[in-house]
Amino acid sequence: QVQLQESGPGLVKPSQTLSLTCTVSGGSITTNENTWSWIRQSPGKGLEWVGYITTSGGTGYSPSLKSRTSITRDTSKNQFTLQLSSVTSEDTAVYYCARDPEGYDYWGQGTQVTVSS
Q1: What is the mean predicted confidence (pLDDT) over 84-98?
Q2: CA angle 4, 10, 16 (to 5 degrees)
């Protein structure tokens, strides 16, 4: 019964920071050796892995996005958050959070984020 739900603004202005939160229910983000990931999808690029945070709080990021990406967590709320700075129109995508014990088994429904002035 694990569920993930993305939340955050759907419109971000260029050069600003995209911030999305994934709220997890039915499972703890601090247990069971999972990684909790952000993935995005755009028509031109398809699915693209953005980064993850582990149950112990370690992080990893796509090399192409690493310099602009930060994933953090709030264990008291069972949430993890994506921050992507200095956004451009190329960051427009549907953003998903997902769980990855060994392949993504649970996904949020995705949230559209448009970068536009």
Answers
A1: 97
A2: 110
